[in-house]
Amino acid sequence: MALIVQKYGGTSVKDVDRIRNVAQRIKQTVDEGHQVAVVVSARGGVTNELVTRARELAQTSDPKGQPDDREMDMLLACGEQETIALTAIALHALGIPAISRLGSQAGFKTDTAHTRARIREITGGDIPDQLAAGKVVIVAGFQGLSDDGEITTMGRGGSDLSAVALAAGLKADLCQIYTDVEGVYTADPRVVPNARKIEEISYEEMLELASMGSKVMQARAVEFAQKHDVVFEVRSSFNHNPGTIVKSEAPSMEDVVVSGVALDKNQAKIAVSDLPDKPGSAAKVFKALGDANVIVDMIVQNIGRGGAANLTFTVSKDDVHRAVEAVEKVLSEMGGGAANYVGDIAKVSIVGVGMRSHAGVAATLFSILADHEVNIQMISTSEIRISVAIDLADADKAAQAVHDGFELDQ
Amino acid sequence: MALIVQKYGGTSVKDVDRIRNVAQRIKQTVDEGHQVAVVVSARGGVTNELVTRARELAQTSDPKGQPDDREMDMLLACGEQETIALTAIALHALGIPAISRLGSQAGFKTDTAHTRARIREITGGDIPDQLAAGKVVIVAGFQGLSDDGEITTMGRGGSDLSAVALAAGLKADLCQIYTDVEGVYTADPRVVPNARKIEEISYEEMLELASMGSKVMQARAVEFAQKHDVVFEVRSSFNHNPGTIVKSEAPSMEDVVVSGVALDKNQAKIAVSDLPDKPGSAAKVFKALGDANVIVDMIVQNIGRGGAANLTFTVSKDDVHRAVEAVEKVLSEMGGGAANYVGDIAKVSIVGVGMRSHAGVAATLFSILADHEVNIQMISTSEIRISVAIDLADADKAAQAVHDGFELDQ
User: Fold this and answer.
1) Mean pLDDT by 10-residue block, N- to C-terminus, for chain B (410 residues)?
2) ipTM
3) Do B53 and A16 touch (CB under 8 A)?
4) What domains sit in chain B, N to C, each tagged with a CATH number?
5) I want to staple A93 with a disulfide (CB 3.0 to 4.6 A). Which of A233, B60, B160, B217 is the partner?
């Protein structure tokens, strides 16, 4: 008998039929003799509906009005509260004893940063007792209780974090993240049709792939799992195929040089020209971007005419306007230079812990791209990742070529 | 400066526009210099949607399956949680400081009877502090927290009860129940077009009128108000007309003999024939009905052929099937008699605390009905009410005639 934490996302509990399906899966796990604690998200679409209503009201008199963070948490926590109760009722109908638990009742203690709370501690409340009494416990993901006794939520992807944290808190044997994809793939199958599901992957690789836009899971949940050594499996709630196990790096993983290819088509390039050539100019630009909450990804700097520097960097498309505005403001304070949106780009990355011990990976990547006449505009690397910025029009071709070139379908 | 508790029902907070309207009303009260605590219901329709989903799931394998009461409370409490947050956000947009509070946070302590919890105590939580700090406090109606730390709900009309109880707990100066009618009328204006809004009414009269089918408010809320001497006003959230003040009986109220005419078209008549003429036979029948949760309204007993008794009684139409079943079962145990559904009837009642000190009211009622050729089938009375069961086809005509006969339009 194992203690298993299962997490079902919004698409898996979207309506009554899907909730029945989830209840059947839980029953199966119970029938196999396991103890099961379940974390569920809000029904797909519900959170967005609630956000829309809140925004409409907040903008009654000011088109830029934003709803209060505390009230948003009060509001959004309803979504999961609904699904835990419905899931428990669905289990009862199958003859499985079950009880729902709010984040507060499950002892998810967080800080007071509403809408983006961080977990301080998971006490688990009476969940161990309920499990011991033979009940399935259905826990509301995404939500917790602050020291002030207020409902908090953990931001997008918070339910994954809840599941991993609950697995850590309960010292579960296994944590299963059920979602609408079958696992982690060597590339996005919609772009690279011969992409292959990866059996096992390290936290580091998962993090690099996730942050590159293969949005299987939010980075925070993976980081938490890594920190607390929670082994978890990403798998589909729509079939019974095994998914991808995510765990600490194992020696065997290094045999595989490249685990996957990530493609991010949501990047834009901004050029700063004629930046005054004084110490700290670039630092001021990036500080201004940071203050404006813009995450800068790749950066290239080179000296232009007359000693003035040119800077080129990429940001998420959504941040372009904010980024240009922030940079122009700081440039005018420094007395020189101009910031311009150059265009959209794609970023192709290869990820693999094996890169640490294998030389020549970058060279192989570059030659594959050259063979396919893909021009590299920028390059960035981490210990286990190499990324290149390329023309958006070349994105799919490049991803397929790199996937083939590194033989990831095998 | 007064402390006012306002309650807005589901139709008043049905959508974003209505919530804006409610926020405007609250702002007005604040601008007049008052402290305001607000109780809101779930958005109109939301509770029914949630109940539908829960029932569908509960009936997955058994068409008679009912969802667990505790899980229903977890589920239904979401409805009010949504509206408190949205109402607070709407107030912020108007520049009014406001904070939402769950039933649990507002210190609504209840027993553990899920879906029909009774209030034990209202501590008010930090509401007095929030009010003193200049904030409007928006409290989730209908819900509380049991001694076990579980969310409970108080059943249909629970938000009215929450409002009255909160007014008692905070020692508010006034409690306003905003609803979709303008107050308590001398009769249902849809049936009696010249019905008049009553300015002031006693708790007892309100209770008799409410229980007679003029569904302005649930009896429990009125009873609570009476017990704790909470003066409240029933008024419309769609205009600014004054409503009806409900309070303890005042001497002046006795000048008015009849305050209103109530009409209940939802009654059915059941006849029990040939009941064995033994002591306790009738008692056994009514005990069986009580055990089956059937509320019996009017009763007539007369001795039939051969000493066997005939019983006739009225129940709510919804309970006919259950009532006949329960009586047939006990009759077969007693070895005799038959129970039959006779037909639907209407009940017309006149209500007024003045009846206590005025003779001849019943005679006047009977002669009005006789003048209009309405046949009286059954009669029941209380200290401040006289009710007659009549043919359903005569219902509207009778209500109008009684209203005119007692000159209630003046």
Assistant:
1) 95 96 97 97 94 95 92 97 98 98 96 94 95 98 95 91 96 93 90 93 88 69 94 92 92 84 92 84 90 89 72 91 94 89 93 87 93 93 91 96 94
2) 0.84
3) yes
4) 3-180 (3.40.1160.10), 261-405 (3.30.2130.10)
5) B60
Q: Strand pairing partners for A175?
A: A5, A232
| Distance between CA atoms of residues A183 and A195, nearest Å | 12
Q: B140 contacts in A (CB within 8 Å)?
A: none
Q: Burial, B306: exposed, middle or buried (Cβ in 10 Å; 0-12, 13-18, 19+)?
A: exposed
Run of H or E including A110: strand A108-110
Would the CB atoms of A71 and B19 count as touching at under 8 Å?
A: no
Rounded CA separation A71/B85 (Å): 5
Q: Which residues, at least 6 apart from A215, have a Cβ–Cβ distance to it below 8 Å? A: none
Are A19 and A87 a contacting pair, CB within 8 Å?
yes
B138 CB near a chain A CB, below 8 Å? no
Contact A372, A398 (CB under 8 A): yes
Model-level pTM?
0.85
Q: What share of chain B is helix, strand, coil (3-state, %, to 5)?
A: 40, 30, 30
Q: Which of A19, A57, A92 sits opposite B90 (nearest CB)?
A: A57
The Cα B49–Cα A373 span in angstroms is 57
DSSP character for B120? E
Neighbour count for residue B392 (Cβ, 10 Å): 17
Cβ <8 Å between A93 and B62: yes
